[in-house]
Automatic annotation (TrEMBL), chain A:
Pfam families: WD40_Gbeta (PF25391)
Residue windows of the WD repeats: 51-92, 137-177, 178-219, 220-261, 306-338
Organism name: Carassius auratus (Goldfish)
GO biological process: signal transduction
Keywords: Repeat, Transducer, WD repeat
Family from the record: Belongs to the WD repeat G protein beta family.
Keyword Electron transport attributed: no
Chain segments annotated as transmembrane: none
CDD domains in UniProt: WD40
Protein name: Guanine nucleotide-binding protein G(I)/G(S)/G(T) subunit beta-3-like
Automatic annotation (TrEMBL), chain B:
PROSITE patterns: DEP, G_PROTEIN_GAMMA, RGS
Residue intervals of the G protein gamma domain: 223-303
Gene3D superfamilies: 1.10.1240.60, Regulator of G-protein Signalling 4, domain 2, Transducin (heterotrimeric G protein), gamma chain, Winged helix-like DNA-binding domain superfamily/Winged helix DNA-binding domain
Listed PANTHER family: LP21163P, REGULATOR OF G-PROTEIN SIGNALING 11
Lineage of origin: Eukaryota, Metazoa, Chordata, Craniata, Vertebrata
Protein's name in the database: Regulator of G-protein signaling 11
Length: 338, 468
């Protein structure tokens, strides 16, 4: 026991030194850096479309790279592919297990994936005459919380078993397993150059991983509860996280630390999801209190609210061309705002 | 009156903040002077006190909050879904009807904030009571739940049955009206907390977390890795916050004209006007690109490479400079990185033959160290074997060809010819509000007067390009 206690102390001591090193380079804060920028206007977005069709809670949605199609997953046991502009349902994929928690659209538009309490990630081909299951990726020992395609041949998953994994879709096997979190991994986000990704977990840490060598490169702390949502900013130099502690934070990767915290005394429900506008200026964060709040990322102020859902906002997404925001909720509806 | 949950480190968090708001409203709805007028309601042969009609609820909400019919109905509906109000005539139908259907307020004893999560034991007692009172009164799904509970908490089943009998006995001694009211309240509570399959469960909270904490052992091995990880982390280079934040601010400002939510877009946002001209004008195969799109290529090299049209233009330029093989090599490497695993060896071989072999037709100029490392790696080809070489060529193009391309006649001509779309206005309906933006797009300022005239005369939504 003595040896372990010593090692624990050593690890802690190193952590303190790391904090000191971080402080040393922290020569300014966002408020000063953005002092010269004009405040964002009070953003009033209206619901442009309400997509009705699911019969139970919507847990996840993901835009296709063509900016019109999207996939949504609901616990009624279906994945729906929508042409969101016309509101038509292009496809309905029945799921073997209705306890779905995530869905993803491949950049090519050929594949979609889903997963949840069945601990598996199932990949479907949308381009065959009848939608077929391409692979069932079965190796996680906990629920699947998030999945993201790198291409038609590789997919990243995060799981409640505290690991993330990179899978080869041709063999259906895990190529790399990313081990370091000590709590359920709840979310992940791929960097724009696809060489790295970040994951958020119930241990209140966000970690940056290298896709190629499987190593955890950086760890970001500061949150006091589960991190439910995470995203790279468009430039790839920083990440935004949303947590059950009711705050969102921005961590800069090069400075290796938190640079700003988005919080409001009046907001006391957890953040469930987030998405950014094209320039990174606006953060759309979905909360447990049924609203989606809009933050000005530079000024750290709330500049708008998207209200209209009857239950928790479980997922948010901005398409690649940045033309609108989509929110999905446990009230079974998806809304498109602009 | 809120549900608080203590997370692992003792941090208090409001579980469902909406409940406080709802309860405040419910209390004011029951105010003897300003609240809803309650009256007796006849239910079969019994008279139920303190009931109200659906219309009462809706009208009270409209008056109190100055909202529309639709919104009042919607808000009233939420009270029923969360169990604060329940219907008398059709208890299983948890919807609010704005007619003379009767409703009652649920007693605070059964409010979500006092009694959540619903305990299994209580549910067992409830079902047992129903079963004892009248054999066969349990519906199908209730029977299943009953049997499942019987299995799961079999050890306390005697207690369950005893409690059920006690409660039934006590209720027999009440007045009939009271008994019926209590039964209604209890039933309403369970309809919300244990909804029949197929109906929406408003109060479910998603799957349990932290069941896997035991998976990761915090042992010596773990701490050894932690120490190693922390050592590497301590040694890393950190950039000053001022530099990082400055670059972030610059990025936001540079991309603001390209952010449709911040600054609108021309000709119009398809989500607002239902006109898909924007998507047509920015598609991959369009003849002439928009100005914004061409400008974006000058922001950074990746922007140019990420746009297929940009790549094509760049290739044309490189061909003139006799260095097109660099871009072709880069693209071939991308194909290896993101393509099928099975094809990697043959693709890598192709790349070697075309670009790396001595005397290759499209030989790329890589420094000797990188070339040596790459050739060594080719003996055992994998997805990332060409990364170093690709990176070298990427930086070569970025530092040399890219800046010259931006200064070239080819680029400047394209930029001059590029389209600035005219704004399309949505057909003007009297009650439609215009969208608000931070500042109008620069092109708008000169076009507005013209467009106003056009919009008034025509009802169509088609946009026009200013130069073709």
């Amino acid at each position: 026991m003595g040896e372990m206690e010593q090692m624990k102390k050593e690890a802690e001591a190193l952590k303190t030194q790391i904090e000191a090193a971080r402080k040393a380079v922290h020569d300014t804060d966002m408020a000063s850096a953005a002092a010269g920028v004009a405040p964002a206007p009070q953003v009033q977005l209206k619901t442009r479309k309400t997509l009705k069709g699911h019969l139970a809670k919507i847990y996840a949605m993901h835009w296709s790279t063509d900016n019109r199609l999207m996939v949504s997953a609901s616990q009624d046991g279906k994945l729906l592919i929508w042409d969101s502009h016309s509101g038509n349902k292009v496809n309905a994929v029945p799921l073997k297990s209705s306890w779905v928690m995530t869905c993803a659209y491949a950049p090519s538009g050929n594949l979609v994936a889903s997963g949840g309490l069945d601990n598996m990630c199932t990949v479907y081909n949308l381009k065959t005459p009848v939608i077929k299951t391409v692979k069932e990726l079965d190796a996680h020992t906990g629920y699947l919380s998030c999945a993201r395609f790198l291409s038609d041949t590789e997919i990243l998953t995060s799981s409640g078993d505290t690991t993330c994994a990179l899978w080869d879709l041709e063999t259906g096997k895990q190529k790399t397993v990313f081990l370091n979190h000590v709590g359920d991994c709840m979310c992940l986000s791929l960097s724009p150059d696809m060489n790295s990704f970040v994951s958020g977990a119930c241990d209140s840490l966000a970690k940056l991983w290298d896709v190629r060598d499987g190593q955890c490169k950086q760890t970001f702390q500061g949150h006091t509860s589960d991190i439910n949502a995470i995203s790279f900013i468009p430039s790839g130099n920083a990440i935004i996280t949303g947590s059950d502690d009711c705050t969102c934070k921005m961590y800069d990767i090069r400075a290796d630390q938190e640079v700003i915290c988005y919080q409001d005394a009046a907001l006391n429900s957890g953040v469930t999801s987030l998405a950014l506008s094209t320039s990174g200026r606006l953060i759309f964060a979905g909360y447990d209190d049924f609203n989606c709040n809009i933050w000005d990322s530079l000024k750290g102020e709330k500049v708008g609210v998207l209200s209209g859902h009857d239950n928790r906002v479980s997922c948010t997404g901005v398409p690649e061309d940045g033309m609108c925001v989509c929110t999905g909720s446990w009230d079974s509806f998806l809304k498109i705002w602009n | 009156m809120t549900i608080n949950t203590l997370s692992q480190d003792g941090v208090q968090r409001q579980q469902m903040p909406c409940l406080t708001k709802m309860e405040r409203m419910i209390i004011s709805m029951q105010d003897p002077d300003m609240g809803i007028k309650l009256r007796n309601q006849r239910l079969l042969i019994t008279v139920i006190p303190h009931a109200m009609t659906g219309v009462d609820i809706v009208e009270w909400l409209i008056k109190k909050f100055s909202i529309s019919d639709e919104e009042a109905l919607h808000v009233g509906q939420l009270f029923i879904k969360y169990g604060y109000i329940y219907p008398l005539k059709e208890p299983r139908n948890l919807i609010l009807k704005a007619d003379d259907s009767s409703y009652r307020f649920q007693t605070p004893y059964y409010w979500m904030s006092t009694r959540w999560p619903a305990s299994e034991l209580d549910y067992a007692i409830y079902l047992a009571k129903k079963n004892i009172r009248k054999q066969g009164e349990l519906i199908e799904y209730e029977k299943e739940c009953y049997n499942a509970l019987h299995k799961r908490i079999n050890h306390t089943w005697d207690f369950v049955v005893m409690q059920a009998r006690e409660q039934l006995r006590a209720s027999k001694q009440r007045r009939k009206a009271d008994r019926i009211v209590l039964e209604c309240q209890e039933q309403a509570y369970w309809l919300v907390n244990r909804p029949p399959p197929g109906t929406q469960d408003s109060i479910d909270h998603g799957p349990e977390r932290r069941t896997m904490n035991t998976r990761v052992q915090l042992n010596a091995e773990f701490y050894k890795k932690e120490i190693e990880h922390n050592r590497i982390s301590l040694a890393r280079n950190r950039v000053k916050s001022s530099i990082c934040l400055e670059s972030y601010v610059k990025y936001c400002e540079q991309y603001q004209p390209h952010d449709p939510i911040m600054q609108g877009c021309l000709p119009s946002n398809p989500w607002i006007t239902d006109d898909i001209m924007f998507w047509n004008m920015t598609s991959e195969t369009v003849a002439l690109p928009t100005k914004l799109r061409v400008e974006r290529w000058s922001f950074c090299f990746m922007e140019l490479l990420n746009d297929p049209m940009g790549r094509k233009e760049f290739l044309t330029y490189l061909e003139k400079e006799f260095s097109a093989e660099n871009l072709c090599f880069w693209q071939a490497c991308e194909d290896v990185r993101h393509g099928e695993t099975a094809k990697i060896p043959e693709k890598v071989d192709e790349v070697y033959k075309q670009f790396l072999a001595p005397g290759a037709s499209r030989w790329v100029n890589i420094d000797s160290k990188t070339m040596e490392k790459t050739l060594e790696g080719l003996k055992r080809p994998h997805r990332f074997v060409l990364d170093d070489a690709q990176m070298h060529i990427y930086f070569l193009m970025k530092k040399d060809s890219y800046p010259r391309y931006l200064k070239s006649e080819l680029y400047k001509n394209l930029l001059a010819r590029a389209i600035v779309p005219q704004e399309t206005k949505k057909s003007v309906f009297p009650f439609m509000r215009r969208q608000r933006h931070s500042s109008p797009s620069p092109a708008l300022a000169t076009q507005t007067a013209e467009d106003d005239g056009k919009a008034k005369n025509s009802n169509s939504n088609s946009g026009t390009a200013s130069r073709l």
